[in-house]
Amino acid sequence: MPWDERQPCAAVRGKIIVTVSRSPILRNVAVIWLLATVAVLVVGFRQAIFIAPPEETMGNLHRIFYYHFAHAILSLVFPYVNLGASLAYLYWRRRDPLKALNADALAVASAEVTALYAGICLATGMLWGKPAWGIWWAWDARLTTELLLFLLYVSYLLLRRFSPTGQTSALSAVLAIFAGIDVPIVYMSIQWWRTQHPAPVFGPNGGGIAPQFVPAVLWNLAGWTMWGIFVIGFRYAMERRRQLAEQEAALMALEASLETPQ
Question: Which of the ends of the chain has fewer CB neighbours closer than 10 A, N or C?
């Protein structure tokens, strides 16, 4: 955690104040992680744009693949972080409110990154599809189920923003379960239905990829994975700070009401 939340509340002039202290170790780890992430992304960019040769049939258009593939894969990974955190919130909300708040903060952070990555996946797919297929969009099973995943997480974030106070986390956690159900449908859509989307590259039924393209694929997958983890951690820290600020404001309001002369 970016701060120590288990410190006792401090009493100042008879008032209860929630104390928050940053951890310099975690801050240093975050800086190192960010620098390493940028370095990996730079190497991935160099591999994708300058080193990997043009593909035989698509030429330089193929370079979009390195970014599309990474975001497509991660848009199916981060939802399970959100799902796990949401289930943890539902389990802990009555048993241990502090653990529930931590889980809820992680759920929010991972949902935001999932929506971002799914949106980039769809956008890069459209940029690739127009020259390759001659159309920007097709109501293909893979595209449609990925779009549904994106819309589910947009709905999740709108629900967090506009739902009544006190019900936000529970309602969002239920929606996260439905979003998690869509993930294996997205992944298996190519095998379950006839689709216009290309066949898988990796996996038991994958068509494989030429060795000269592998470094660009792996460097970008690693870089965008590290970036997603960093953003989730950063947003988690911001959400925990917001939660603690709300707790402090509630305590101060309660204290003020108790001090009001009758």
Answer: C
Question: How high is the pLDDT of residue 197?
Answer: 76
3-state helix, strand, coil in the chain (%, to 5): 75, 5, 25
Alpha-carbon distance 234 to 196, whole Å?
A: 38
Cα four-point dihedral sign 185, 188, 191, 194: positive
pLDDT of residue 12: 38
Predicted local confidence at residue 18, as pLDDT: 43
- Give the integer Cα–Cα distance in Å for 164 and 132: 46
Amino acid 8: pLDDT: 41
Those residues whose C-beta lies under 8 Å from the C-beta of residue 97, and which sit 6 or more positions away, are none
Asked if 10 and 19 count as a contact pair (C-beta separation under 8 A), the reply is yes
CATH number of the domain to which 72 belongs: 1.20.120
CA gap 125, 44 in Å, rounded = 19
**What's this model's pTM, rounded to 2 decimal places?**
0.86
With a cut of 50, list the residues of the chain below it in pLDDT. Answer: 1-20
Token pair in block for residue 142:
């893979």
Residue 164's domain spans which residues? 3-259
The number of folded domains in the chain is: 1
